[in-house]
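Quick one:
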Amino acid sequence: MNRRAYLKTVAAAGLAAGVPARAAGKPIQLQCDLEVAPGKEQALEAAFHKTFSPVIRKQPGFVDVKLLKLRHAVVGEVPTKATYKLLISFETEEQRLAWVATDDHQRVWPAMEKNLTKFNAILYDQV
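Output:
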């Protein structure tokens, strides 16, 4: 997985789209479906709690971050092989993009990513 190219693409897509700032009280949320490498679940959880979460919480515009582990589908089927979901909320997309560009992000994201075989990231606006 080429993290640097992926992050540049995600950042460029947001900027190219001319993402408007969100109104106060209506943050954005990035939802990442994470496919974890076999035997790396505990390492992912440790990286989230010890490294990633404490650093992202200090960023300007930060609202919330959660790591969820799939239990089971209540209705329908589980859509992918992703057994974890990372939820990241910032006040605006510009603040999230600023976080992605920081040295802090470049330092802590690899601790998460090294435990993954694949991930996707989908951006939502709160309505």
